Amino acid sequence: MTVLKTSMRNFFAHKGRMALSAVAVLLSVAFVCGTLVFTDTMNTTFDKLFQATASDVTVSAQGSSDTGQTTSRTGKPPVMPASVVSTVRGARGVRSAEGTVFSTSVTVIDAKKDKLSPSSGAPTIVGSWNGNDARTMEITTGKAPKGPDQVMVDKDTAAKHHLKLGDDIGMISVVGTHHARVSGIAAFKVTNPGAAIFYLDTRTAQQTLIGRTGVYTDVDVTAAKGVTDDQLKKNVTAALGHGYKVRTAKEVADANQKSVESFLNVMKYAMLGFAGIAFLVGIFLIINTFSMLVAQRTREIGLMRAIGSSRKQVNRSVLIEALLLGVIGSLLGVGAGVGIAVGLMKLMSGMGMELSTDDLTIAWTTPALGLLLGVVVTVLAAYLPARRAGKVSPMAALRDSGAPGDARAGAVRAVLGLVLTGAGGWSLYAAAEADKARSGSGLLGVGVLLTLVGFVVIGPLLAGGVVRVLGAIILRVFGPVGRMAERNALRNPRRTGATGAALMIGLALVACLSVVGSSMVASATDQLDKTVGADFIIQGDQEFTFVKPQMVRQIKATPGLERVTEYKLLDATLSTPDGKVSKNETINAADATYAKDLRTKTVAGDLADAYRPDSMSVFEGFAKEHGIKLGSTVTVGFKDGRAARLTVRAITSDDVVIDKGAMYASIATAAKYVPASRMPLDQLVFATAKDGQQAAAYASLKRTLHADPALTVRDQTDYKKALKDQIGQLLNMIYGLLALAIIVAVLGVVNTLALSVVERTREIGLMRAIGLSRRQMRRMIRLESVVIAVFGALLGLGLGMGWGVTAQQLLALQGLNVLDIPWPTIIAVFIGSAFVGLFAALIPAFRAGRMNILNAIATD
User: Fold this and answer.
1) Where is this chain compositionally biased, Polar residues type (predicted)?
2) Which one, 60, 168, 366, 466, has least CB within 10 Å?
3) Where are the domains of the chain?
4) Alpha-carbon span 314 to 218, nearest angstrom
5) What sign for the dihedral angle of Cα 551, 557, 560, 561?
6) Entry pTM
7) pLDDT tens digits, 630-643
8) What is the model's pLDDT at position 636?
């Protein structure tokens, strides 16, 4: 009980000094809890939507997507005859059955030809209005669509795009463009996360999406009273046979939820990973805080030991203080985490994904996990300082002589750090020299971990040398004040090393990702310059947005073009000469002019020959695996057609980036074996202008594609910029998440300086008494902070660049063989670190300058 009282008294006596450590715990716990609440809320939102919109049993055409999206490369969803509906109605236990048709491979535009698709990447759905939709939606304005000239829009889409009754809507499908006017607006009875939905009557939907009536994509089946969904599924399956996909409401909802969860899990674990980095950085802050508090209370600990307190009691006293810090920081962090989740929901709403606070989900495991993590991390971080406090003998503590084993522990630490760093460096070297990416990536991971831990352990040893060099370069110009700042930073190398290491972790990751991202852009740009011979690339803005036939015709009619190349992807099964069957392969079918548009390397033959009748190419790795040579025959079983025996006329190199691992054939060859009705739409279209007409052809193509805003034309400059922007956006998002760790590291610098000022109160008073001005005192604190921040930046940037260079060597095995160091970014981060040091010193320097000289000198 006495230990608890002592711990409580010490904790609240030093609550100001504990505050920044508590903030570090709060931020880390808040990020974890906010991530969990946010992803759980998204899961709840989608759960409610999928459960509400699914009929008791759904019958779909064979080959349809489990999630309902149109993934067919023909641009049309798989369909079944209308006779299926009457067959289902005759099954036992069926109360009602209604056919429906819908597609997600449609571009919807307004009267100005602006696209009405969601900005969040959610699907655009055009379908028929039926009874199942009426059950889950409520018409708030106007009426349901009747006739070919009417369309109904969901309320959220109408609000986002300012649609009202009577507005013209255009729906561009593979069949053509259908125009209708808004007849009604309907609202979901549950939250719609962001899909844009447009309803036509059944006959119009069939004509617009499929091109003919008498077919459906799905049949919505409702069970009679007392019939379970599982029993209804058995009855419907028995009536139809096994040529259709029959699923219960739960199975449909689970399939949809599974597809959403894969995306949410990536987001969740990525964010939790960054929270883990923040926790790791926070450990250094907590260790420093308790180390300094213990050092400042050395005499008090000696008195406690002298009057009978055991080592365990002293140790326990410090750990109880850490427990209190962890509990308070974690409890506040759990509350802040809910706020972060709500903020993320608002942010996502701004990006087009609607999430309602009515669905806010806080599972009991979330606060429990946050509290557990915060407390465990804090107590573990405080264990070493607590153990060190318990080892101090009473007489040594009364003399302020420190722990007896510090010198020996420092030597052991230095040796261990050197061993770990050396082992990590060897792993990075081995990774860079690896022949295969898989083995190299494992060595890279080991190297990153070992060098990181090694630098943390060896930090105090490095601090002594690096700070002296920085002092000679940066601090000496400030005269005596600079020299005092240097000595202060060197006074406790362990503390300086730990503070710098906290900043090092975040900056190492920033430097590594900057090198990798910059090298990827440079490599891809280099490949574009070397291999792409076409002037323009036309493609859709999403995975299953294809170039529709009517647009291909318009592109070919665009003035100023010398040639236009179509490019399709066909699923196939390959039977190779070694007797093996390779399933789920893709044949890249293109016009013969593609050999000019892509100057890819070959190890045998000429790629142009692969576009001859009944010919193809294979890539180098596939050829070696299956013993294929020029002239070998491969049986290609096209998924949507019949089998073809094609002769291998070329073998392409694996040392490429664009179309790596592609197998080519001509569209004319594919058309012999795949019916026109099943031939995939163009994935891409390449165009080349006549000499001297590039600018005019580019402008003409832009005007042509205005008719379908889902398509984009890019010249090579545009394509490079788009690639750079995509990687830049990803890196900026990662940098934003790493900012949490850097903020915690800055708090560590602030806390170290603040506690250092308290620790040196008497010394500061004496310096002021002999003539040091307030301004000089503040400058000394700021310079000390700057040198610590720059020390951490040097370690972090150097370590991160080493990681990035090694990672680039592995990427070179995948064809990304250009190393590009983004020096502007590296230099900006380095300079920014100095400003971080200045910012972190503001409050400690201000407090040091305000000290009363006499009171400071009188401090024990």
Assistant:
1) 60-74
2) 168
3) 63-242, 459-533+716-860, 546-709
4) 72
5) positive
6) 0.80
7) 999 999 999 888 99
8) 94
